[in-house]
Design a protein that fits this description.
Elements (H helix, E strand, L loop, with lengths): L4 H4 L3 H40 L4 H31 L1
Length: 87
């Protein structure tokens, strides 16, 4: 059975699609980070309206969303880094 050289090396198209796939993974992490900030901010805003506080819960929501999103971002990137090293 003969093996072609082309079977061993990825084609140019495969290289491009692989780079786009890895790029979309990181874009997803950034989207999740931003979404966690927005959701926590909206919850804080709504709670401010319900309880009549002066933007205290909005600020707490922004901080909570930022910290939670950043922790999630770090976990995801560390997991992706470990998976990349194991391949």
């Amino acid at each position: 059975m003969t093996v072609n050289k082309n079977d061993e090396k990825p084609s140019e198209f495969q290289k491009i699609t692989s780079s786009y796939r890895s790029g979309w993974v990181y874009a997803e992490y950034a989207f999740q980070y931003g979404l966690s900030i927005v959701i926590c901010s909206l919850i804080g805003y709504w709670l401010d309206k319900v309880f009549g506080t002066n933007n205290i819960l909005l600020i707490a929501g922004v901080i909570l969303g930022s910290v939670g999103g950043f922790i999630n971002l770090l976990r995801a990137l560390n997991s992706a880094d470990r998976q990349g090293k194991s391949k």
